[in-house]
Design goal:
Blueprint lengths: L14 H22 L3 E6 L16 H8 L4 E3 L5 E11 L7 E12 L5 E10 L2 E4 L10 H13 L3
Antiparallel strand pairs: 1-3, 2-3, 3-4, 4-5, 5-6
Length: 158
Amino acid sequence: MTKANQTSPRVSFSRGVLARCRAAAAIGLVCALLAACTGEQFQKGYILPQGALEQIPIGASQDQVLIVMGTPSTVATLDGEVFYYISQRTERPVAFMNQRVVDQRVIAVYFDKNRSVRRIANYGLQDGKIFDFVSRTTPTSGQELSYLTPLFKLLSFN
């Protein structure tokens, strides 16, 4: 037998098998790149524990609110004390794109002079206006609006 007729101990791939392996690797790479580009959601600020607002009845003490809700984002002391818990949820559909605001909330817990809960409001943006999701009302212009407007302007990064 001549050297030309002897088979090599190396495994030889046919061109068809090699082409299929390359195609499978390319498909896997494209799938990995597309998976990296899927959307993301971001939560900024206060995350409301589930059922927390139900644990705070009208007349509850300020200490009870702190135990259930935690430290507020900010506190106002005009006309009684108010705890504000501020949050914003954004998302971006594809990585490396700008974030879009999905939801903004300000939970306000109002206290009377005895440091007991007088009222709870869950404010959000609905159609570009401040809206109380608890009482389903939009506050009239006045002192209430002047407190919340700077908070929402602070949260909007546009």
